[in-house]
Design goal:
383 residues, alpha+beta, Immunoglobulin-like, Glutaredoxin, 5-stranded mixed β-sheet, Thioredoxin_domain, AhpC/TSA family protein, redox-active center
């Protein structure tokens, strides 16, 4: 029995050292020298990046408290009346303490959240790389000004290494911490980077822990990645010289018509994405009628792809056919009557009117022309 007693005591001590498991969070804040009654806000960012308060606390005797629940560790931003700026906080269901610096909110310290510690580690390292990069960039510029070839050469080597380090660090960090919800915030920042490497981003996302991917934020990021990759592919598929993506859709009589059936009949073919509800499209139609009447006998074909079927249209097919008749559009027409459908997506069409000119083999030879520019291009190709 005497031998068992130390083992029991050790077990009790070990269990008491484990982090408390909670299903809610509590943030105990201290705000030194802040007047009673000052309001503190916990905010989420909306789709435009604007803060939206989700909870409010009032400072009393230098203290305030937030209580709540999160489905998974989430990023919030704390603001306080009378203090500029905001504090990023990774909140998770645990007990946390927050020491607020009212003069410089960014100097405030949150303790108790592993997710927040991880985000802080990432930002600290990232900022250090940026500082080093700025220093070396200045040194390189100074060496260029002084025509110091020796330092120019050495600074350039360091500069290139730091640039590579800066580009790779977010990806390396995500890969190292693939089981943490914190990396979703880093993913989101990478999605805003110009010319982001989306295939690499997708691979990293696919390798995340399943528990991270199935969160609402994970699902949203996955959707953005997939939509952006599809858009990139569509841009490649509709570049000048590319073979136009194939498609077929019902004509006004319900018969399927393929784009290949149209461009094979003429020397050039205009694909015109439009809709009965689209004012700019309807204003462009007289110009198209004029061009078609003038050049159809010389080998011009047109196929109108209607994007009617948007929410609120009472009878999309009726509106489509009436617009064809009213505007005297005597060429080929097709529509799935489902607004910006798969055809529009495959051509990376996000706004209408949008036009593509194909040769008799289906290769794209011009696009995004309207008015006089379209007329001149058709004349150049057929005269």
């Amino acid at each position: 029995m005497k031998k068992l007693l130390p083992i029991i005591l050790i077990g009790i001590m070990m269990s008491s050292c484990q982090k408390e498991v909670r299903t809610d969070y509590i943030i105990e804040g201290t705000a030194k020298d802040v007047y009673n009654g000052i309001r503190v806000y916990l905010n989420e960012l909306d789709q435009r990046g604007r803060p939206v308060p989700v909870d409010t606390a009032i400072v009393l005797n230098g203290s305030f408290t937030f209580n709540g629940k999160v489905p998974y560790p989430k990023l919030y931003f704390l603001t306080m009346n009378g203090s500029p700026g905001r504090i990023p906080l990774m909140i998770e269901n645990t007990k946390m303490t927050l020491d607020v610096d009212k003069k410089i909110l960014s100097n405030s310290i949150l303790s108790g959240s592993d997710s927040h510690d991880l985000l802080h580690e990432f930002n600290t390292t990232l900022n250090k790389i940026k500082e080093d990069l700025n220093t070396v960039s200045k040194n390189y510029s100074d060496a260029q000004f002084l025509r110091d070839s020796v330092n120019m050469k050495s600074d350039k080597v360091v500069l290139e290494k730091l640039q590579e380090k800066l580009a790779n660090y977010p990806f390396d960090f995500i890969e190292e911490h693939s089981n943490s919800n914190t990396v979703l915030e880093i993913f989101q920042s990478q999605l805003r980077v110009a010319n982001a490497d989306y295939p690499k981003i997708k691979t990293l996302f696919d390798n995340l822990d399943q528990s991270v991917k199935i969160t609402q934020k994970g699902i949203t990021i996955k959707s953005i990645i997939e939509q952006t990759i599809a858009k990139i592919e569509a841009q490649k598929n509709t570049a000048i010289g590319a073979i136009a993506p194939p498609f077929s859709a019902p004509d006004p009589e319900g018969k399927e018509l393929a784009i290949s059936e149209v461009y094979s009949k003429g020397k050039i073919t205009i694909i015109d994405f439009w809709a009965a509800w689209c004012g700019p499209c309807r204003r462009e139609n007289p110009n198209l009628v004029k061009i078609y009447d003038q050049y159809h006998d010389k080998g011009l074909e047109i196929i109108g792809v209607s994007l009617d079927g948007r929410r609120g249209q009472q009878n999309p097919k009726e509106a489509w056919i009436k617009a064809i008749e009213d505007d005297k559009l005597t060429w080929n027409h097709v529509s799935n009557l489902t607004y910006f459908d798969k055809i529009a997506q495959s051509y990376n069409v996000n706004a209408i009117p949008a036009m593509f000119i194909l040769d008799d083999k289906g290769a794209i030879i011009a696009k995004n022309l309207r008015g006089k520019a379209l007329e001149l291009k058709v004349a150049e190709l057929l005269n």
